[in-house]
Amino acid sequence: MATSMVETMRWQNGKLEMIDQRVLPAQFEFIAYDSAASVAEGIRSMVVRGAPAIGCAAAYGVALEALRLASSTLGEQFAKQLEAGFDVLAQSRPTAVNLFWALTRMRRVWQAMGAVEPLQLAQRLLSEAHEILAEDVRINRAMGEHGALLLKNEARVLTHCNAGALATAGHGTALGVIRSAVEAGKRIAVIADETRPFLQGARLTAWEMMQENIPVTLITDGMAGHLMSRGEVDAVIVGADRIAANGDVANKIGTYMVAVLARRHGIPFYVAAPLSTIDLEIKTGAGIPIEERDASEVYGFRESRWAPEGVAVRNPAFDVTPAELVTALITEKGVVHAPNDAQILALFR
Ligand code: MRU
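A: This is the predicted complex of the input protein with MRU.
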């Protein structure tokens, strides 16, 4: 089978349409976007989430803003307002570096165009956004092929959060490796951590795997150690939101706990991420900005509340796994075992 049929986002009738990931799997619906501000709100509110998908959405946000302004605004005003569009997108979420990577790439296209008519620039920005989307699928497939070699037939693979088609333009990073292994004829059984508090594992990973009949078993986050201690997990594979120059990995809250447990039980811990997730400007994980989200995600869910009124709550959305706990980093350029500064830098040569 080709890349998964899940279409996280698509260009339709001059607008960006994105699956509303907040309501999956109960409802499957698209929301249409027509400006940088609306796309930024879609990112902030988690209609779209997952590092590569956020990057793709931001690229479309820039293109949509340029198209919108091109029909009404001229000259200096156009440039000023497009700048404001970049700013609003940059402020949507802080941790996934793919967002900033995509904005930088779009800015370079703008700069390279020089003085051209706004509409011509807008169309060029739109074609760049399309290219970023298409490229992401190609990258995920390359990663999948490299990573699939690491998984044995009949492997029971634990994953945390959702690093699947929904978190990317298609195929996925961590789930892309699993999909590619399945395509190569291996029998893989997935164990999905539910991923409190936003439940990306329970809602999205479980749904994605079931769409393709890949066996998946849902567990709560606290059950991972128990299964590992019973010899029921052969490998762990996760995605990443930002990887520092030394190989430290920021990913969904709870990933660090899984990595420590994996080391304790001698289970390989793999991270699958494209080069656009690596931030060479940040030396170690300590420098990665960690998003703190609203307390309401922790004390309840939607309309229900289970914690007492007034209780103090923390809600960091990501944590950092030190490079020393990473067995291998899977990228589109190949697999890096025991990643360190030198090996990571070499990926960019
Ligand atoms: O808060 P989210 O859902 O955007 O967090 C997503 C993750 O942490 C993913 O594991 C990561 O972005 C990799 S997605 C290919």
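The chain has two domains: 9-140, 142-346. The mean pLDDT is 97.
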